[in-house]
Amino acid sequence: MLCVACQMKLRSSDEDPQSPLMEIVRYDRLEYRYLTTGDFSALQEMNTEYPIETRTLIEDVLKLGTATDPEINTKLLKFYQDTTLQALIADAETEYANMEDLNRDLNSAFTRLKRWFPDLEIPQVYSQISALDQSIVVGNEVIGISLDKYLGEDYPLYRQFYSKQQRKQMTRNMIVPDALTFYLISVFPISDFDNRPQEERDLHVGKLQWIVNQALERRAFRSPIVIKIDNFMRRNPQSYDQLLLTVDSI
């Protein structure tokens, strides 16, 4: 679920320190204009203002081919002409007409994360519509959020493709927890991942999910591993850096 996205854009040092650290870039709105009306100006803006987001969508998420293919824009438009996908696009834009709550939660969480991890870079975050592909894409200090994967556990189309347990995670209130988790996984990767036992991989992800819970000040993740880590930290208070280095004693 991880792939390369684009370069971050940080708040400059002379800006108001009280201003938000970040705001979700609405790349999805350009997609909506192009994919539902064929608006060429929207396509031009996608390619000129957001070339790496567009390349990521085409090559890494949808896997339609290379972004340099002379026919790729036609392929992209044709891909989304399916009536089901057109409805999905419209529903995503309606559900996420306003995203101030997500911006607020991201800013609050990253403010806390910066306090715990001072060297942590603040990523750029953008929203997209990925045709039910990857929920979150992360790379080069950027987070891409696929809004069409978070339309609610009762969204009718989901019932055809996802289990009840999966649908419980496909809700608006899981966008920020998922985005934070995958970003932290990219920042704090476990060494020699492919050769580690599954138990160690799960423990590492559980630690990061527990940290996300603290950053959000709510229990977004409640797996047995996260609960185990919560109990461990209550018995053995320590810095979050130390937690990430702890293996055997949890």
Major β-sheet profile = 3 strands, mixed
C-alpha end-to-end distance: 27 Å
Portion of residues within helices: 40-55%
DSSP summary, beta strand count: 3
* Derived structural class: mainly alpha
Strand order of the largest sheet: 1-3-2
Overall outline: elongated
Low-confidence segments, ≥5 residues, pLDDT <50? 1-17
Number of helices: 11
Q: Could you tell me the radius of gyration in angstroms?
A: 19 Å
Strand content: 5-15%
Q: Averaging pLDDT over every residue, what do you get?
A: 90
Order of helices and strands: HHHHHHEEEHHHHH
Report on the architecture of this protein.
Helices cover 50% and strands 6% of the residues. It has 250 residues and is mainly alpha-helical. The chain has a three-stranded mixed β-sheet with strand order 1-3-2, with helices on both faces. The longest helix is centred in the C-terminal third of the chain and has 19 residues, at 198-216.
Concise overview:
With 250 residues, the chain is mainly alpha-helical.
Q: What key phrases describe this protein's structure?
A:
3-stranded mixed beta sheet, 3 strands, 250 residues, disordered N terminus, mainly alpha, 6% strand, 11 helices, elongated
Show the helix and strand layout:
Blueprint: H1 27-37, H2 40-49, H3 51-61, H4 72-79, H5 83-95, H6 100-116, E1 124-128, E2 136-139, E3 142-146, H7 164-168, H8 175-187, H9 198-216, H10 224-235, H11 240-245
Parallel strand pairs: 1-3
Antiparallel strand pairs: 2-3
Helix pairs in contact: 1-2, 1-5, 2-3, 6-9, 8-9, 9-10
